[in-house]
Automatic annotation (TrEMBL):
A matching Pfam family: Beta_elim_lyase
Similarity remark: Belongs to the threonine aldolase family.
Record note on quaternary structure: Homotetramer.
Cited InterPro entries: ArAA_b-elim_lyase/Thr_aldolase, PyrdxlP-dep_Trfase, PyrdxlP-dep_Trfase_major, PyrdxlP-dep_Trfase_small
Residue ranges occupied by any Aromatic amino acid beta-eliminating lyase/threonine aldolase domain in the UniProt entry: 2-289
PANTHER family xrefs: L-THREONINE ALDOLASE-RELATED, LOW SPECIFICITY L-THREONINE ALDOLASE
Keywords for this protein: Pyridoxal phosphate
Protein name, as recorded: L-threonine aldolase
Molecular functions per Gene Ontology: lyase activity
Record-linked Gene3D superfamilies: Aspartate Aminotransferase, domain 1, Type I PLP-dependent aspartate aminotransferase-like (Major domain)
UniProt key word Cell cycle: no
GO biological process: amino acid metabolic process
Cofactor(s) recorded in Swiss-Prot or TrEMBL: pyridoxal 5'-phosphate
Length: 347
């Protein structure tokens, strides 16, 4: 059973079925097609304002190009030390934007106002100037920012003239947990650009870059073209995103993933096992030795083992829209057996 991430499960049948119906005819190339226009209109309704929408192939491309669009010259991008853009995107943001990432610590992987460095431009020619604050929603530790938490960060950014990017690869999971609206978790809280992830929610491979101001979106298609991310048949991406959004499937998918994580949390706690972080989205972290992690894999449960911001080593397991209760129950039992042993050897 594969719990490494929510992008290792099959695409959602709901998306595949609707996608097939959308691809029966040809369309205009380079995201100037009717499906992309309809997806833009749908997103504008969802976010309660006119948005500019651009489909891209990967989350890394979405983040790197969106930040490059906002950052400008000589920029510094303030982000969490555990953020995907810093830890897992091979320097893509720095490559495309020529800005420097400035990772900082927070509270269990979540940025808090007191953790932010000075955001004003010092005027020192020997230093970069802060240009973008990047937030992950939900975070790489599985926590969700509430609207008021986002506001507390974006207010400091706004006061210093710093723009705000949100890596929303699991934005839907944060919506499902907080009960907030998409608008409340994004532009109403001060976010300038949202990279909305559909791949981990059931799409084959499609992400949406959403700008909340037309000024910010100017020339973004040129940015996509120059970086090799403006494909001809972009409607293949928009059709996935449209199908994912239809009938609120994106939210139902996220709720299911969250529910499976919450079930695992309850089952582990019943065994006296305390996850490292509150379970707010679809990820759970359990402190475990390398030997115990190997044993868990040998038992058939794939996962990632990683050093956490506080230095502890933990197993990360991720549930998805395709996760079954029986799989969660089996995983909880396996984790319990591994932790009941010494150095990963079953008694």
């Amino acid at each position: 059973m594969d719990f490494r991430s929510d992008n290792t499960c099959p695409p959602a049948p709901e998306v595949l079925a609707r996608l097939q119906n959308s691809l029966a005819v040809g369309e205009s190339a380079y995201a100037e097609d009717e499906i992309s226009a309809a997806t833009k209109a749908r997103l504008s309704r969802i976010f309660e304002r006119e948005v500019d929408y651009f489909p891209v192939f990967t989350g890394t491309a979405a983040n790197a190009l969106a930040i490059a669009q906002l950052s400008g010259s000589f920029g510094e991008v303030v982000c969490s030390e555990s953020s995907h853009i810093f830890a897992d995107e091979c320097g893509a943001v720095e490559f495309h934007s020529q800005a420097r990432l400035r990772p900082i610590s927070g509270n269990m992987g979540k940025l808090v106002p007191e953790s932010l460095p000075p955001l004003t431009d010092s005027g020192d020619v020997h230093r970069g100037r802060p240009t973008v604050l990047s937030l992950s929603q939900s975070t790489e530790t599985g926590l969700a920012y509430r609207p008021e938490e986002i506001v507390s960060l974006t207010q400091k950014a706004r006061a210093a003239g710093v723009r705000v990017h949100m890596d929303g690869t699991r934005f839907a999971n944060a919506l499902a947990f907080t009960g907030a609206t998409p608008a409340e978790l994004s532009w109403q809280a001060g976010v300038d650009v949202l990279c909305l992830g559909a791949t981990k929610g059931g799409a084959i491979g499609a992400e949406a870059v959403i700008f909340f101001s037309p000024e910010d979106a100017k020339e973004f298609r040129r940015m996509m073209k120059r970086s090799g991310h403006l494909g001809a048949r972009m409607w293949f991406l928009s059709a996935q995103i449209s199908a994912w959004l239809e009938d609120d499937f994106w939210l139902r998918s996220a709720r299911h993933g969250n529910m499976m994580a919450a079930l695992l949390d309850r089952l582990l706690r019943a065994k006296g096992i305390q996850p490292l972080y509150p379970v707010e989205a679809n990820m759970i972290f359990v402190e475990m030795s390398a030997g115990q992690s190997v044993r868990l894999s040998e038992m058939g449960f794939l996962h990632y083992l990683a050093v956490q911001p506080d230095g502890r080593i933990a197993v990360r397991v991720v549930t998805s829209q395709a996760t079954l209760e029986t799989e969660v129950e089996a995983l909880a039992d396996a984790i319990g057996r591994c932790l009941a042993t010494s150095a990963g050897r079953l008694a």
